[in-house]
Design brief:
Layout lengths: L12 H9 L4 E4 L2 E4 L5 H8 L3 H10 L1 H23 L5 H11 L26
Antiparallel strand pairs: 1-2
Helix pairs in contact: 1-4, 3-4, 4-5
């Protein structure tokens, strides 16, 4: 006999998470276009009646859900980047989200133009 509460996981959540994150870049509000509200994992969890931690656990236990979750994250990444580049999302917020949730980094390449030569005389005694 196994212990614990039965899972609330359903295979249809794979498509549901993708649909939740697959929103248009903008939506009409009156006469103007505004950025769509950013879908968040906590919002999806609340919509289906589970905790954020449960969603993360499902990504470890259900391979098909893990793939759907990764697709949803890519959709979120696209939405953030596109709306930030079009000045629809706050640039600092977008940078924070992309670095902390999508693996983006600041990368600075530094070219070294000087060399250092170190010579060690094998005849010297160690002190």
């Amino acid at each position: 006999m196994s212990g614990g509460r039965p899972t609330k996981y359903k295979p249809e959540y794979c498509q549901k998470i993708i649909d939740y994150f697959n929103v248009p870049l903008t939506e009409r509000v009156g006469a103007k276009k505004e950025a769509s509200e950013l879908p968040m994992l906590i919002g999806f969890a609340m919509e289906i009646g589970v905790s954020y931690e449960t969603i993360l656990e499902w990504t470890k236990v259900h391979e098909e859900f893990s793939h759907a979750y990764k697709s949803a994250k890519r959709l979120q990444e696209k939405l953030i980047a596109a709306n930030a580049m079009n000045n629809r999302y706050n640039a600092y917020f977008a940078q924070f989200m992309l670095k902390n949730n999508h693996g983006w980094k600041d990368k600075q390449e530094v070219e070294q133009t000087q060399s250092i030569k170190i010579e060690i005389d094998a005849d010297d005694e160690a002190v």
